[in-house]
Amino acid sequence: MECRVCQSATIPWLNLGTQPLANGFYSPHEKPPPKYPLQVLRCPKCGLSQLSVVVPPASLYENYSYRSEVSTGFQRHCRDIGALASNWNKSKGRWLDIASNDGTLINHVGYFGFEAQGVEPAKNLAAYANSQGRSTTVGFFPAATKNFDAGQFAVISSVNVLGHVADVHAFAAEVERLLAPDGSWVVEVPWVRELLDKGEFDTIYHEHLSYWSLRALDTLARAHGMCVSFAEFHPIHGGSLLVRIRRGTPNFTMWDESRLFSQQTYYDFQRKMQARLSTFVEKYNALRGKWAGFGAAAKGTVFACAAGINENHLRFVVDETPEKQGKLTPYGVPIVGLNEDTFLGITNLLVFPWNHLEEIKAKLPPRLRVVSA
Ligand code: JHZ
Ligand code: ZN
């Protein structure tokens, strides 16, 4: 299989067998969701990792249960993005957020004086965003914007989107078409170097088609007459790159990603993944009392499936997202909301979204023993 960015021949490095869709929550009267193969390949030239199989996007995103606004950490992050882009585009102007979810980002950048709008494939999320006055067009980018006038946006953002896209060149070409001459494309992606360093295997699932290096982002930008001109590291979602891409070839010194090109890094990853799983199993076996989970996160599905967790191990999983409550996780555990009685009879809690650990801990009764995935 060719690299979707630079077309080099790729090398397989991880096989996670067959897995359910990570956000494949289902109602108790429905059948459990189907499983698909999950295998990862790497590009020896640009450092991108990508999946071997593309699940059709309509089945993943036309109704989507993840809501950005549930995390206050992400809300703060949106303000950081707004502040950065305000500096770059002092005269403000129009802002397009691609895959804008519930409109959390467009809401925040509005406070900085941008005239913001979103494009979002999930009908349920777009309807909610519009009901909150966050102007949202329903559809997949780039098809949904083909009638938009060229060159009209001072800022285009795609935050945690590029990893979900199969045809990244069509995506970048449409961004370039819509961007004003001095406009900024703000891209945020989980950084594959962090994924590898920290053994974040649970961020690998069917929705994430690509795992980005800075070099891969720059290679993509250059193929469309643009270039990375700024990059910043953010700890959110396990370690992300927040990048500014614009026209021309500004002077930007690439960061060290040399270990992406050594096979040893990929062997080491397998060890880190096994260590995380066995640490959890040891704790689970050592701690007495009843267990529940917190966070019906996509990454929780991957972790639970890899660790062999099911309804015999966790009484329920707590999640504050209304769309997830009353359903079952893809590994068969009921999802419940959070209230003062939620943890009656529970002693131990497995927090799946380790990226929100502190925010979640602050909501828990102090007597609970908390274990992070
Ligand atoms: P969280 C998501 O992955 C979805 P996930 C997506 N696939 C993506 O690309 C990445 O992010 C980047 C709940 N929660 O954010 C909300 C509470 O209930 O780690 C979520 O269901 N209360 C598009 O799904 C889950 O936990 C809280 O206080 O792995 C967290 O999921 C907090 C903080 C979260 O993303
Ligand atoms: Zn490549």
Supply the key terms:
16 strands, alpha/beta, binds zinc ion, 373 residues, binds ligand JHZ, single chain, 10 helices, globular
pLDDT averaged residue by residue: 97
**Could you tell me the number of beta strands?**
16
Helix percentage range: 25-40%
- Described by its quaternary structure, the protein is single chain
The CA-CA distance between the termini, in Å, is 32 Å
Strand/helix succession: EEEHHEHEHEEHEHEHEEHEHEEEHE
Calculate Rg over CA atoms: 21 Å
Bound chemical compounds: ligand JHZ, zinc ion
With helices defined by DSSP (H or I, 4 residues minimum), what is the helix count? Answer: 10
What does this protein look like?
Helix 10 links the parallel strand 15 and strand 16. This protein is 28% helix and 24% strand. The protein has a seven-stranded mixed sheet with strand order 6-5-4-7-8-11-10, with helices on both faces. Strands 14-13-12-15-16 form a five-stranded parallel sheet. It has a four-stranded antiparallel sheet with strand order 1-2-3-9. The protein has 373 residues and is α/β, with parallel strands linked by helices. The protein starts with 10 loop residues before the first strand and ends with a strand. The protein contains ten helices and 16 strands.
